[in-house]
Specification:
Blueprint lengths: L1 H37 L10 E2 L10 E2 L3 H7 L4 H31 L4 H12 L6 H11 L6 H7 L14 H27 L3 H9 L4 H23 L9 H5 L7 H4 L2 H11 L3 H30 L5
Antiparallel strand pairs: 1-2
Helix pairs in contact: 2-13, 3-7, 3-9, 4-7, 7-9, 9-13, 12-13
Length: 309
């Protein structure tokens, strides 16, 4: 008994010694996170101050929750929160449904070369920044010269100002974001499809089940755990409407339906120099997002058995 305990302690000691180089390699990353992620949290105190840049963090007057009261009393704050939730939920659900459908369709292609060609084509947009894509969409969706409106005119549909009409703008943001990311998002579901036992399809085919019934009764149940997991985890992004996309495509004409928390904070802090209000808005978003992250991981554990540790 004593010998086995000694051997166990010795094995753990040897394992720790072998892992020391790995711990050393982690040090630069930990320092980076401490400085830029945790160190910057000191600035959150601005949300509770009447911040004056010349006085700094420790010289400005402490006013408690007055900035939050002023923030939520602003006439457009309700619109900003509503727009953020609507656009985020649209992207979230579309970002689940479209990749699943695409993965199912791609899985039916038996020609490996054709399948890889389709995968490559739909992956490319994910690697382009919204700075590039915004310029492309301004031209493509132009009400006068854009190819989309020229196509719609063939069916008698008048020009649609996709990026300037307050009704069309949020829909355009949802659709273009889904288009950009569905190819890359389908990778997870394609991986889940490879985990389904081929014998199930063979048995179903012997019993006379066609491709549709095989999809409904074998394929979908086989990847449902992954779908549920990704849906639950995406709850953490319910207040992330996509700053890069919105900032590079919106204008004052669509503020009522397109302005989100991220762009609202940017305008308050950078353009209008209202640092305390913008910090309060950013802190509000961070706290709500943190709550959603905790809830989403709890649900992922309970529903799909997923745990990060």
């Amino acid at each position: 008994m004593g010998v086995s305990k000694f051997m166990s302690r010795e094995a753990k000691r040897n394992k720790t010694l072998r892992e020391i180089p790995l711990y050393i390699m982690l040090i630069p990353g930990i320092i980076f996170v401490l400085i830029y992620s945790y160190g910057s949290m000191v600035g959150a105190v601005v949300a509770f101050q009447k911040f004056v840049p010349t006085k700094g963090l420790f010289g400005s007057e402490w006013i408690g929750f007055d900035n939050f009261k002023n923030l939520f009393s602003m006439p457009n704050m309700g619109e900003v929160i509503r727009n953020t939730i609507v656009i985020s939920l649209g992207k979230m659900f579309g970002g689940i449904i479209v990749p699943v459908v695409f993965a199912l369709l791609l899985n039916e292609i038996k020609n490996i070369g054709v399948k890889r060609a389709y995968q490559t084509i739909v992956y490319i947009p994910n690697f382009l920044s919204w700075v590039i894509l915004a310029g492309l969409f301004v031209d493509i969706l132009s009400p006068s010269t854009g190819m989309v409106n020229q196509f719609l005119e063939l069916f008698g549909v008048g020009p649609v100002f996709f990026l300037g009409d307050k009704t069309a703008y949020p829909i355009t943001m949802i659709v273009t974001e889904i288009w950009k990311g569905f190819g890359f998002g389908s990778v997870i579901y394609l991986a889940a499809l490879t985990g389904i036992d081929p014998a199930l399809y063979e048995s179903a085919e012997i019993d006379g089940a066609g491709r549709w019934k095989q999809t409904v009764h074998i394929t979908l149940p086989g990847i449902m755990t992954t779908v549920v997991l990704m849906t639950v985890l995406s709850m953490a992004n319910v207040l992330n409407g996509g700053f890069d996309q919105i900032y590079n495509t919106y204008s004052p004409a669509v503020y009522t339906t397109g302005d989100i928390l991220d762009t609202f904070v940017y305008r308050l802090g950078i353009q209008n120099a209202q640092f305390a209000l913008s910090t309060a808005a950013g802190l509000f978003k961070s706290v709500v997002s943190f709550v959603f992250i905790v809830v989403s991981y709890y649900l992922a554990d309970k529903i799909a058995g997923y745990r990060i540790y």
